[in-house]
Every structure is written in C-alpha cells, then in structure tokens.
Amino acid sequence: xxxxxxxxxxxxxxxxxxxxxxxGDTVQFELVSVIDYKHEGKSLAAIxxxxxxDIPIYANAKDAFQNTAxxxxxxxxxxEAGFHHTKAALEFGVRPVVGTTGFTNDQIEELKQLAKAKxxxxxxxxxxxIGAVLMMKFSTWAAKYFQDIEIIEMHxxxxxxxxxxxxxxxxxxxxxxxxxxxxxxxNEKETIPGARGADRQGMRIHSVRLPGLIAHQQVMFGDSGQxxxxxxxxxxxxxxxxxxxxxxETVMKLDHLVYGLENILE
Length: 266
Ligand code: NAP
Description:
Blueprint: E1 4-9, H1 14-25, E2 29-35, E3 57-58, H2 61-68, E4 72-75, H3 79-92, E5 95-98, H4 105-118, E6 122-124, H5 130-142, E7 148-155, H6 165-175, E8 198-200, E9 203-209, E10 215-223, E11 226-234, H7 241-251, E12 257-259
Parallel strand pairs: 1-2, 1-4, 2-3, 4-5, 5-6, 6-12, 7-9
Antiparallel strand pairs: 7-10, 8-9, 10-11
Helix pairs in contact: 2-3, 3-4, 5-6
C-alpha cells in the first residue's frame, strides 16, 4: 500500500509535536515536510530532539507543497496562519486536515466553496478527541428534553480564541434541535459586563482560562428540580491524535469539506 505523504504546519507547537510523533509511529503515513515560519531551511531534527530523520522545514506553505508533494496537510497553528495554509493547500490540490480553531463562519464557507471547486477533501475539526465528539452528540440528544443550557469550556491560558471551537460547535449542534430561548430572568442585568457569558441563541457560553488546564467542557442542562451535566476532559494532547489519524485516512476519500469529526465517525 502506498503511504500517505503528510506536511505538518506548526510542528513545534503542543499539538504539532504530538502530530509529528503520531505520523512517525504510523506505518502507512510518511512525514515529507513541515511548515514553520521561524526555522526555514533547517531540518526538523535540529529543532525537535525526538526526530531522527531528515525532514525539511519551509516557512512558506506553497514551497513545501511544490517541493515535497504531500497528499495531506495537517494544520495546528493559529487562526490566521491556519486559514492561509488551508487555502493554499486547497489551491494546490493538497487535502487539509485542520485542527486549528478560531476560523470564522465566512472563512469556513470560503474553504468549503474552494474544496467543492477543486473536488478534493478537507476536514476541519475543532475537537479531534473522540470523547469530546460523543459529549457533543449526547448534549444534542439531551437538548431535545432540556431547553435551558449553559456551556462551560475550560482551557489552558495560552489559547488564543474564546469561546473554544468545541463550544461554538456544541452550541451550533444544539441549535439544530432547540428552539431559540432567552435564558435567565427577563429583567436580569449584568453588574459586571460579561458575567452571563456569551449568548448563542439564548444559550450561554462561559470560557475559563487557567494554567494547568488542557481542554475540558461541561454542558449543563437545567429543568425544575434537576440538573444534567455532560462533561469531557482531555488530560493530555495525545487524546486528539486518534481523531487526526482517522481524519487523514478519511480525507483521502472525500471530494468536499467536512466540518466536525462527528460527521465522519459512524
Ligand atoms: P501552540 O502550542 O501555540 O502551537 C501553535 C504553533 O503554531 C506554534 O509553534 C507557533 O509558533 C506556530 N505558528 C504560529 N504561526 C505560524 C505560522 N505562520 N506558520 C507556521 N507555524 C506557526 O498551540 P497548540 O496548543 O498546539 O494549538 C494549536 C491549534 O490547535 C490552536 O488553534 C488550538 O486551538 C488548536 N487545538 C485543536 C485541537 C483539536 O482537537 N482540534 C486540540 C487542541 C488545540 P510560535 O509559537 O513560535 O509563534
């Protein structure tokens, strides 16, 4: 079987390093290059001590695609760089698997149109942890019976976007089964702005940022006399890699963009 050739953007990052390890440990995958704006021209082994093969580093996505002809780009960078890399990949015929969060709806729509025009696969997943996908699915089920919902997402303090992509995706999935409802007392007033969190169709989303956290979310459902809490915790970043692996295999068979790991899991 021919190996799937992969470029990773953001290899020095917390997620990127896990992805480099996962690709190295997967026999059917081959890492052909990485994109890192700070180390152009070096070999990956020079910046990551656990890498022992000669993988070229490019600052520019197009150079990486042109010189190393990957099948798939795994992007784990920042919203701005990630969007730029993903667009360049689609234009170049490279299939993106994007874990980077913080893309706007307009950006996702633009990438969707581009994937459609190029007839190639693209997977954007705000959360690659299978348990988190189940948490979102179970929450959507519970939302059919509970109208009042508060989402509390908790992440490490280096995270750039708030609310998290997972929280936004959870709210979107719930919105499909829940009629819009303004929650809390009709006359409630915030004495400190932001106290009630972000408002998504009346649902409230709260973002906690603390050193020591990794990625956690609980969805609380309230009704008279009962509270249901559905919670997921990623306790290390390896938890995301089984989802990245499935996405790399699946993206090869797609001819359009899929947003959300739940849409490729059976
Ligand atoms: P991180 O440790 O800050 O890693 C991001 C990496 O991207 C850094 O090494 C950064 O380099 C690099 N970078 C920034 N701009 C770049 C550019 N233009 N070209 C190439 N590399 C660039 O963050 P992380 O925790 O790994 O998270 C990365 C992304 O994945 C975030 O968007 C995060 O929200 C998301 N995430 C997704 C999942 C999921 O399951 N989908 C799970 C966890 C995190 P410098 O630091 O030197 O600027």
